[in-house]
Design a protein that fits this description.
This protein starts with a helix and ends in a 6-residue tail after the last helix. The chain contains seven helices and no strands. It is an all-alpha fold. α3 crosses α5 and α4 runs antiparallel to α5. The protein has one domain: bsu32300-like (Four Helix Bundle (Hemerythrin (Met), subunit A), Up-down Bundle), CATH 1.20.120. 30% of the residues are buried.
Amino acid sequence: MVDREAFDRRLRLLDRRIALLREIAAAGHERFGSDPHLQAEAERHLQIAIQAAIDAGHQLLAEEFSEAPETYRQVFELLGRRGVIDAALAARLALAAGLRNVLVHAYLEVDPELIWASFDRLDDLVELARRPSDRLDRGGTDP
């Protein structure tokens, strides 16, 4: 049984960070490209949003399916295999897990354009939050 309170807390964090990222994107590409503070803010919000998505997926896999992914990428791959999310979304989110690793470990190599491009994929994180939540609302039944 999934601890719904903990799961929803992760989703609320994800929602807040996505809203903040959308505000940054609304400032426009030119401002983003010329403002290192805005870039750093976006990097941190994106890192936390992706981590919240990973953590929610990991929790769902552990508590509903007794699965223990070995990598962050595998969290999304297993969610896809289990039918919680579709395969195309799982593949895109696996790339997001890679971006999270770049933000955390290869921060010297982060290109602001990579962050800007990620704004076009925020809906993938929204979809990830929606699908498992809908599933839990139905009592864990398959879609």
